[in-house]
Amino acid sequence: MKFTRLLARRTAPERQVIAALRGRLPARLAALPDAGSDFVALVDLAAQQGVHCFALQSPFVSDGEVELLALLGSAQRRALVGIRDDRKDAPERLLRCGLLLRDAGIWLPVAQAGTDKASSALSVPRPEQAGLARARALSLARSRQVASTGDFIGIGISRQYVSRLCKEGHLQRVRHGWYRAAPIAAEMRLHHHS
């Protein structure tokens, strides 16, 4: 087991959010209206998608909890910059919980280590945002040479969109959950034939 999967090794804000996901809201979060029901609904929705949280007493952090930390951190920043997604598949509950955390003064780190097993709740960017999302994803992949799904989630790029970038030839899958930018020559051929 990786040492980062020990609950005690997580930051204080991460431990507070994990406690909320497990059913024990920190006092400053519990003081906000509907916080309890929103977090219960988020955990239920995540469980329906195969993303699970450990029991309250567990000294470890589950893959699902790591995934939810990344998604909530991203949701906090999406709400902060005013990005609004009105499609019916938008993660409204996720954004609501991200706002509740922000209102309670609980800020999650920008980048989180994601997992390969849990499914992402963030949706594919709208067409008018796709160019910016693609640029961010390619910039990340080029700067790190090989980037994980969690790295992309940490900057607000869903695993569905990463898959789409692979199908379009912008990214190449190195192994399960790890990607690199396609060589520049391949991208030039893609744009030349478009």
UniProtKB/TrEMBL annotation:
Instruction: Domain (AbiEi antitoxin N-terminal): give its ranges.
Output: 137-181
Q: Name one Pfam family in it.
A: AbiEi_4
Entry superkingdom = Bacteria
Instruction: Please name the InterPro entries in this protein's record.
Output: AbiEi_N
Recorded protein name is AbiEi antitoxin N-terminal domain-containing protein
Q: Which organism is it from?
A: Sphingobium yanoikuyae (Sphingomonas yanoikuyae)
